[in-house]
Amino acid sequence: VAAAPAPVVEAGLKHKLERKWTFWCDNQSKPKQGAAWGTSLRKVYTFDTVEEFWCLYDQIFKPSKLQNNADFHLFKTGVEPKWEDPECANGGKWTVTSNIGRKANLDNMWLETLMALIGEQFEDAEDICGVVASVRQWQDKLSLWTKTAANEAAQMSIGRKWKEIIDVNDKITYNFHDDSRTKGAT
C-alpha cells in the first residue's frame, strides 16, 4: 500500500478568523490633570488572521509587562472599549481578579481568553464585545465585556464558559455598565 503524499502547505497561507479584532492599550500611570477618561486609550492594531495574532501576542501583548494603572484590550473591530460605545452601552462585564502568583496567572488567563475569543469558542459570541486586562498596584483583573446585560441566559452561559476556559473555581462577578457608571468605578 503506497502512502498518500503529504499535503503541500503554501508558504504564504494565512488562517482567516471569523471576524476582525483590534488590540488597544491604555496607560493611565501618568494621567494628565483634568484629562477625561479615555484620552490615553490608543488603538494599536487590527488583525484578522491567526498568524497576525501570534505575531502581536509574541511581541508585545503580555499583561505582566504592563506598568501599574495600564490596560490591554482586545475588542471586536468597530467596538471601542468604552461604556459609551453603542455596542457596550447596555452591557456589562464578567470580572476575575488575580492576586496570588498574579503576573504569570494573569498572562495565562489573558492568553486563554484571547484564544477563546478569536477562536469563537463561546456559544453566545455575538454578545461578547471584548476583554480587558487591568494591572493595578495590589491586584490585577480580567474583565470580559458583553453587550446585553439584560439577557441573563446569555450572560450565565458566557460566565460559565469563561470560568471553564480560564480554569477558575473561585466566584467571578458580573456588573452592569450602568451600575459601574453610577458608582464611578473603572
Radius of gyration: 18 Å
Order of helices and strands: EEHEEHEEHEH
Q: How widely separated are the two ends?
A: 64 Å
The assigned structural class equals: alpha+beta
The structural domain count equals: 1
Can you summarize the main beta sheet?
7 strands, antiparallel
How many helical elements?
4
SSE inventory with pairings:
Layout: E1 16-27, E2 41-49, H1 50-59, E3 70-76, E4 92-98, H2 102-118, E5 128-135, E6 140-146, H3 152-166, E7 173-176, H4 177-183
Antiparallel strand pairs: 1-2, 1-3, 3-5, 4-6, 4-7, 5-6
Protein name: Eukaryotic translation initiation factor isoform 4E
Family: Belongs to the eukaryotic initiation factor 4E family.
GO molecular function: RNA 7-methylguanosine cap binding; translation initiation factor activity
Characterize the structure shown.
Pfam families: IF4E. InterPro entries: TIF_eIF4e-like, TIF_eIF_4E, TIF_eIF_4E_CS. (Microbial infection) Susceptibility host factor required for viral infection by recruiting viral RNAs to the host ribosomal complex via an interaction with viral genome-linked protein (VPg). This protein is 26% helix and 29% strand. It has 186 residues and is α+β, with helices and mostly antiparallel strands. A hairpin with a 4-residue loop joins strand 5 and strand 6. The protein is globular, with a radius of gyration of 18 Å. The model has no long low-confidence stretch (mean pLDDT 85).
